Amino acid sequence: MNKKAVQWLYKELPDLVSKGVLAQPAADRLREHYGDIKSVDKKWFVIILCSVLGALLIGLGIILLFGHNWEELSRPVRAVLSLLPLMVGQALAMWVVFKRPESQALKEGTATFLSLMVGASIALISQTYNIPGDTPTFILTWMLLIVPLAYLMDATIPAAIFVAGVSAWACHFWNEPLKAFLFWPLMAVVVPHFIWSLRQEKYTVRAAILALVMAICACVGAGFTLGRSWPGSWIVIYSSLISVFYLLGAWEFKGFSTNWQRPFQALGGLGIFIMMFMLTFRFPWESIAGRYSYSYAANEISSWAAIPDNILTFLLVGGALLLFFQYAKRQDWMRTLFGALPLLALIGYAFGGTSAVFPMLLFNVYLLTVSVFRLMTGIRTNNLGVINTGMVMLSALVLARFFDSEINFVLKGLVFIFIGVGFLATNIMILRRKGGAA
Amino acid sequence: MRKELIIGIFVGLIALQIAVPVSMIAKRESTLKDGAVFRFKTAPVDPYDAFRGRYVAIRAEINKVSKPQGVELKYGQKVYAQLIVDEKGFAQVSQIALQKPKDSAYLIASVTYPSGNDVGLNLPIDRYYMEEKAAPRAEQAYREHSRRDKQDAYVIVRVKDGFAVIEGLYVGDQKIEDVVKQKSL
Predict the structure, then answer these.
(1) Which of A70, A125, A176 faces B24 most closely, judged by CB atoms?
(2) Which of A95, A354, A432, B150 sits at 20 to 30 Å (Cα–Cα) from A316?
(3) Which residue of A has its CA nearest to B164?
(4) Residue of A366, A328, A312, A368 whose CA lies nearest to A247
(5) Cα-atom radius of gyration of chain B, to the nearest Å?
(6) For residue A300, what pLDDT is reported?
(7) Nearest by CB to A69, which of B14, B21, B54?
(8) Sign of torsion, CA B17 B19 B20 B21?
(9) Averaged over B133-154, what is the pLDDT?
């Protein structure tokens, strides 16, 4: 149900009744049918935002002050200093949890502050004692010490910091697959918190923020942890990952109506378009043959080290295909068409090793089909947003192929004219049908 | 019940959040107090860490040793680097071992590249933190000094049970902080 439409209807009702378009009982029945609109309290959101931003800036400021490395401070003073802000943060958090447990703004703010102070404390000790620059250990220690706050204080920002931190940690282990793979179990630590935050009626924005951070970090993490034993498998892996985002995000959950509340769907949709577009070129398919490969082969990775990677890759691709078939069964054609990406990527991957021509052709047709379908759907449902995105997709494809130096001019020209005639013919057909109906 | 459990976990978390930094401090203080003193020759340069501020990167000049016979080494593997003092008074790695040496001082180092008869080593002394403005000056001071053919920058390191803590960075037998102060006067 579209919240905005109901809001508009409620605004119109008194006017309609007074003008005699609608009888009062009918208006009342309409209200009864749609029920109250749950409006998100804006003020409340602003308070939380201010408290989080305040805590974030003060916390980062303290880290920066420490970063100056004050020479005048002796070692004992530094030791005390590195513990002091941490203890202040802890005291604040304790006070909020026990005295003001109902204030989400205070909980979120103090949890954010405490999260940063844990990092500041370890950082200052690193300076004082010239601890070797072991960045991954620094990050992981920090992250593991703050993630319980997400659960103990129902706070989302520490969870978001954790997700970002764990991704940064995984980036350090691109040549140690077993270690890097821990990224996924670590990410899973925040999933219960994420599900909990999705269920909160009042404050869906924070679920959206966490979803956004998680989606971006999962994409980064996938690059460092998955498909490392087969060159070019990133094509299938990323196709599956973003399709899973898109199709899961599009699943009908209660209470989400805007794209902002569906960051997984929005990001997934964008990702699918970018992926489709990229796959109309030659270079991704050539990576299968190992021309630009960055696989483990050179680094003597024993086969068992790749097992978790392989299992997760298969689960991911399988999940994406399963979701695709679900949407096809529901006959939700737009999403089915978008969700077909992993299947086509898989087909392309199977052929791409020998020749890039077939997969390239496949994806050109695919992108053309999706954009035309989107355009048509938009026109049919009178949805300008859908029309525009369809146009953007189509123009991207047309421009890319127009400037494509690989295809010879005659062939390019003929295909362009052929498709153009197709459009005109459709146009004429629609006009005739309309004319016939009128 | 639920509240008590939360209090319990919360107190546990807070204790852990304090225990980690305190144990980091304690281990280093104990090394600084009781550790054996070694001088490592270095070449300092000046990078930057967003969280921890400016430091002087220390590249200890011993980062290569000969590979022990009949041992396979992998990238990142932990090894025990045994320390000796050469005739000029600087520390050298005499050999590396996979078992903890019993009678000599050692550092726990990681293997960077095993190649041929040599093994690259990553010694756990690579940063010396300095005040924001001092770190670039320190690098400059070292460069000017080394131009006069006296490449005698070194760090004094305390070593205890394979664990190293840097005590100070010296250029031409002067503490780097003093060198920098003289320069800026």
Answers:
(1) A125
(2) A354
(3) A131
(4) A328
(5) 20
(6) 45
(7) B54
(8) positive
(9) 71
Tens digit of pLDDT for each residue in A272-295? Answer: 999 999 999 888 888 777 644 454
Chain B CB contacts of A80 under 8 Å are none
Domain ranges of chain A: 1-37, 231-292+306-404, 407-438
Q: Structure pTM?
A: 0.78
The more confident residue out of A368 and B150 is: A368
Contact with chain B for residue A180, Cβ under 8 A: no
Residues in chain A with CB shorter than 8 Å from the CB of B46 are none
User: Are the CB atoms for B28 and A129 separated by under 8 Å?
Assistant: yes
Q: Do the Cβ atoms of B134 and A118 come within 8 Å?
A: no
Partner-chain residue, chosen from B21, B127, B128, that has the shortest CB–CB distance to A122: B21
Angle at A57 between CA A53 and CA A61, to 5 degrees: 170
Q: With contacts defined as CB-CB under 8 Å, which chain B residues touch A128?
A: 25, 129
Written as six digits, the tokens of A40 are 């998100």
Asked if A93 contacts A114 with a C-beta cutoff of 8 angstroms, the reply is yes
Q: Phi/psi of residue B92, each to 5°?
A: -135, 155
Q: Is A150 in the B-facing interface, judged by CB distances under 8 Å?
A: no
Mean pLDDT by 10 residues, chain A (438 residues): 72 84 84 71 75 88 80 83 91 90 87 93 86 85 94 91 94 80 92 83 72 89 79 86 88 57 81 92 79 47 69 90 90 88 90 83 92 87 82 87 80 84 79 62
* B chain contacts of residue A123, beta-carbon cutoff 8 Å: 51-52
Structure confidence at residue A282 (pLDDT): 85
**Is the model's pLDDT at B47 over the cut of 70?**
no
CA B150 – CA B176 distance, rounded (Å)? 15
Where along chain B do its domains lie? 1-34, 36-60+125-185, 61-124
User: Which helix (H) or strand (E) element contains residue B159?
Assistant: strand B153-160
**Using CA atoms in the order A178, A213, A148, B3, what is the torsion angle rounded to 10 degrees?**
-140
pLDDT higher than threshold 60 for residue B1: no
Residue A298 pLDDT: 44
| DSSP SS3 for B58 | strand
Q: How far is B125 from chain A (nearest CA, A)?
A: 6
The listed range with the strongest mean pLDDT (A213-222, B40-49, B76-85, B104-113) is: A213-222
Determine the pLDDT at residue A37: 66
Check CB contact of A265 with chain B, cutoff 8 Å: no
Which residues of B fall within a CB distance of 8 Å from A67?
A: 49-54, 132
Question: Nearest 5°: CA angle at B89, between B84 and B92?
Answer: 35
Whether the pLDDT of residue B147 is over 70: the answer is: no
Q: What are phi and psi of A343, to 5 degrees?
A: -60, -45
Q: Which residues contact B92 (CB under 8 A, 6 or more apart)?
A: B62, B83, B84, B85, B86
Residue of A nearest to B48 (CA): A67
CB contact under 8 A, B24 and A70: no
Q: Check CB contact of A76 with chain B, cutoff 8 Å.
A: no
Give the residue-averaged pLDDT of B179-185: 72
